[in-house]
Design a protein that fits this description.
Keywords: Chaperone, Hydrolase, Nucleotide-binding. GO terms for molecular function: hydrolase activity; nucleotide binding. It comes from Moraxella nonliquefaciens. Zinc chaperone that directly transfers zinc cofactor to target proteins, thereby activating them. Zinc is transferred from the CXCC motif in the GTPase domain to the zinc binding site in target proteins in a process requiring GTP hydrolysis. There is one protein chain. The chain is of the alpha/beta class. It has 2 domains: 193 residues, P-loop containing nucleotide triphosphate hydrolases (Rossmann fold); 113 residues, 2-Layer Sandwich (Hypothetical Protein Yjia, Chain: A,domain 2). Helices cover 32% and strands 22% of the residues. It has 12 helices and 13 strands. The strands form 2 sheets. It has a 7-stranded parallel beta sheet, sandwiched between helices.
């Protein structure tokens, strides 16, 4: 008796492009959606899965820490283990994978399409790339991961277009057409729910893209830093420190994301930034953890994380968790 294979859709894109926001917007419209969401993050603390989980209970953080490796044993083991969830009742009938912003999709595509154990139970449905229109020009030239992500996708969503000039949009569209002329631009509004995303069919499976020749060297220079504060934060002091850091070293800060507890404010805030840009804080309805510790995760390349920790400790020593 033939086995119904579970379709897998991949959402890729460089750090801070808006992958989690894209997934959140689709899931918000779902009613009893049977979608398993697997989120992979680079760093010791996961935040994106905590942002999606209130919308979709079937959301899990992949433990590998980085889906850019050529051997994806953790991904295979995770996918095979999820089949146990459907033993007694149908918990999910489709899977959405959000890759880390440093992922080279070539290794993911290779694992899903060539591994004999996975091929028998899963089928690759497609790949969507989220492209940060505001930072694409510089990311295309300074971030080696950006190009393989765009080359591998079949469709793409442009984020932060409201922050771009007309000339930047023309340049970006020209660049995308040059590296992947077959890719189709779509908008998040095109997918009223997750079923709409999976209902769309593709004539050809996503094509494999190239491996970065110096992939190990690149990621060796990329580090994740976790700053924790066990007391409510003085926003003026913290904002001054962060502004000075981004002003001087912003091009090396690939992404920052954190949940902060501020003095005089009851509810925590979600803080996000990419390179020199720090986006307006978002107030969260409830804490993401069962404690009042503020956590800021930074992914940097070409910076000494010890220097960042020392500067934070010097300026905010009375706030830092010992």
């Amino acid at each position: 008796m033939p086995v119904n294979k579970i379709p897998i859709h991949i959402v890729t894109g460089f750090l801070g492009s808006g992958k989690t926001t894209f997934i959140q917007q689709i899931l918000k419209n779902d009613q009893n959606a049977k979608t398993l969401v697997l989120i992979n993050e680079f760093g010791e603390v996961g935040l994106d899965d905590l942002l999606v989980k209130p919308i979709n209970d079937n959301t899990y953080l992949l433990s590998s820490g980085c889906m850019c490796c050529t051997v994806l044993t953790d991904l295979k083991d995770t996918l095979l283990s999820t089949l146990d969830l459907n033993k007694d009742t149908l918990v999910f009938d489709k899977i959405l994978i959000e890759t880390t912003g440093l992922a080279n999709p070539a290794s993911i595509l290779s694992t899903l399409t060539q591994d004999m154990h996975l091929k028998g139970r899963f089928v690759l449905h497609g790949m969507t790339a989220i492209i940060d229109a505001q930072h694409a020009r510089i990311q295309a030239t300074t971030a080696p991961e950006w190009l393989p992500q765009v080359i591998a996708c079949q469709q793409y969503v442009l984020s932060k277009t409201d922050l771009c000039q007309t000339n930047d949009m023309i340049y970006l569209q020209t660049l995308i057409n040059e590296v992947n002329p077959d890719a189709i631009e779509v908008h998040v509004d095109d997918f009223i729910n997750m079923q709409a995303l999976f209902t769309k069919t593709f004539d050809v499976l996503p094509k494999s893209t190239f491996f970065l020749k110096s992939e190990q060297d690149i990621h060796a220079k990329t580090q994740s830093l976790l700053l924790s504060f066990d007391k409510p934060i003085d926003w003026l002091a913290f904002g001054l420190w962060l502004s000075l850091l981004l002003d001087q070293y912003g091009e090396h800060v690939l992404r920052l994301k954190g949940v902060l507890h501020l003095q005089g404010i009851d509810k925590p805030i979600l803080l996000q930034g990419v390179q020199h840009c720090l986006y307006p804080p978002e107030h969260l309805p409830t804490p993401m953890w069962y404690d009042d510790i503020s956590r800021l995760v930074m992914i940097v390349r070409g910076l000494n994380v010890a220097d960042i920790e020392r500067s934070a400790k010097t300026v905010l020593s009375h706030l830092r968790k010992v």
